[in-house]
TrEMBL record, chains A, B:
Sorted UniProt keywords: Amino-acid biosynthesis, Aromatic amino acid biosynthesis, Cytoplasm, Isomerase, Signal
Protein's name according to its UniProt entry: Chorismate mutase
Domain Chorismate mutase: residue ranges: 171-281
Pathway named in the protein's UniProt entry: Metabolic intermediate biosynthesis; prephenate biosynthesis; prephenate from chorismate: step 1/1
GO biological process, one term: aromatic amino acid family biosynthetic process
Lineage, opening ranks: Eukaryota, Viridiplantae, Streptophyta, Embryophyta, Tracheophyta
Signal peptide: 1-33
Catalytic reactions on record: chorismate = prephenate
PANTHER family reported in the protein's UniProt record: CHORISMATE MUTASE (PTHR21145)
Family matches, as SUPFAM superfamilies: Chorismate mutase II
Main enzyme class: isomerase
Isomerase in keyword set: yes
Organism: Spirodela intermedia (Intermediate duckweed)
Amino acid sequence: MAPPYPPSAAAAAAARLLLFSVLIAASFSCSAAAAGDVPRALTLDSVRESLIRQEDSIVFSLLERAMHRRNSAAYDSSFLPPASLAEFFVRQSEIISAKAGRYLNPEEVPFFPDYLPEPLVHPHSPPQVLLHPASATVNVSKEIWRIYTREMVALFTEEGDDGDHGSTVASDLVLLQALSRRIHYGRFVAEVKFRDAPDDYIPLIKSKDRVGLMELLTFADVEESVKRRVEKKAMLFGQNVTLDDKAGRNNTGGRGKYKVDPEVAARIYGEWVIPLTKLVQVEYLLRRLH
Amino acid sequence: MAPPYPPSAAAAAAARLLLFSVLIAASFSCSAAAAGDVPRALTLDSVRESLIRQEDSIVFSLLERAMHRRNSAAYDSSFLPPASLAEFFVRQSEIISAKAGRYLNPEEVPFFPDYLPEPLVHPHSPPQVLLHPASATVNVSKEIWRIYTREMVALFTEEGDDGDHGSTVASDLVLLQALSRRIHYGRFVAEVKFRDAPDDYIPLIKSKDRVGLMELLTFADVEESVKRRVEKKAMLFGQNVTLDDKAGRNNTGGRGKYKVDPEVAARIYGEWVIPLTKLVQVEYLLRRLH
C-alpha cells in the first residue's frame, strides 16, 4: 500500500521553493514579463473581475460535489492513518499538479506543500507575479481544509453514502482548489488596495493594528452584494433547465427546487469565504513592509 | 524525470480487471445489491435524468476550461515523447483515481486503462452494476481523446497561450471525464432500451445490422431538443450574472456576451457527444446476446 506521498519527493521541496523565490524575484526585476504570450495586469478592475468569475467556479464545484451523497467515510482518517481518502487523493493530485507546473502560477496554493516535487514543465516566460515576496507566503490552507471537511460538506450534501468515494474526492479536490484560490486571492486584493492608497495602510501596518486593518478592509454593503450574487448564481446554475420556460425567469421569484440551496451557497461565502479572504488580506498587509 | 506511468503498476492491471469482472458477476447474482447505503435503480427515467444532469457537468467544465487560453503546447507530444503534458496529467491522475476506487463505479471509464493499479479502497458493498458483462467493455476513449485534443479545444477556447498549462490540463481532465462519462453512458441507455423492448432489437442484433440499429436508436426531434437545452444551459451558466437584472431574463433574447458560445456547446453535442453515444449504444447492443 502506497504512502500518501512519496518520501523521495521531500528532497525536491527545497529546490522548488528556491525556484519559486527566483520567479518572484524575476518578476519584480522585469515588470513587463508575461506568462505565455498573454500579459496579465493587476488592477482594481482585473482583481474584481477575477473574484466575480471565481464565484462561478465555486458554485459549479458545489453543484458537482452535491451530486454525491455526503459520504463521510471519505474524510475518516482510518483510510491510511492519519490520512483520510480525501487527504490521500488531494496529496497525490498535488504531486502531479506540481510536476505539471500548476504552482508556477502564484494564484494556486497547494494544501500540502511540504513534499511537492519540482515542475517538469516551465512556462515560456516566468509568470507575472506581482505579490510582495515577504507577504506572498500567507497561507490559510489548513483552516480551509478543517472547515471544509468538518463543517462545510455537511451543509450542502445529502446525508448518506452512495459508495462512490473515488468520484466524490475528485469533486472535493476541484471545489477545495476553487475555494483556496478565491481565499488566497486575498493576497492580490490586498496588494492592489495597498498600492492604491499606501498612506491609509502604512500607519496601521506599523502599529500591527489587526483590528484597524480589518475595519479598513470591511465594506458591509459590498459583502452583502457578493452574498446575494452568489445566491443568485446558485439559483441560476442549480435550477432544472427545461425548454418549456423562459430561461431562468420562473426560478427567480420563489426558492423552487435547486440542486444546492442558494441560501447555503451565500452562507458559505458569508461565514467562511469572505472572512478568510479578509484574514489573508490582513496577514498579507502586516508583512507588506518587510 | 518520471515516466508517464509507473511500470510497477502494469502487474496490478490484470488483478484489477479480474476484480472488475467479479464485481459485475456479483451484481448479477444479487440484484438488490446497492453501492453504499443508497440503492441505484436503472430505469428509463433514471437514465434520462442522469443524461440531463450530465449536460450541466459538461457545460460547467466547458466554461472552466474556457477560462484559459487554447495553450496548444499542452497537447504537443514533445513533453514526454510521445506523451503530451495533457496525456501525462490524465494518465497520472487516473492512477490516483484507480487507487481511490473511482473505476469501481462502472459509469467511470478511464482513458488509459492498461496500467492502472488496484483500488486501495472498497465500497461498503459492490456497486449495483446492471450492464451486460459482454457489452460492458465497449470503449471509445481513444476517439474521444483524439477529437478533444485535435478538434474540440480549438472550438471553445480563445487562441493564445497564457502560460498556465498546469491548471489548463487539470480543467481538461475534468471536462474529458465528463464527456467520457456521458458518451459511455450510452451503455446504460442501450441496456435500458433493450430490456424495455428486446424483440425490437434481437433480430437486428442477430443479423449484425448496424444501420438498422442506428436507425432504431435515432430520434431526430429528441436530439434537436438535447442540443437546444445544452445551448440554453450554456447561455444560463455562461452569462455574466449581476444583481441589476432579473436573473437571466435579459440574456435569453439575444446572443449577448457568453463565456462559451452557446451554439458551439450545442455543436459539440451535435457533432460528437450524441453520435458517439449512439455508436456506444450500437456496439453495446451488438454484444448484448453474447
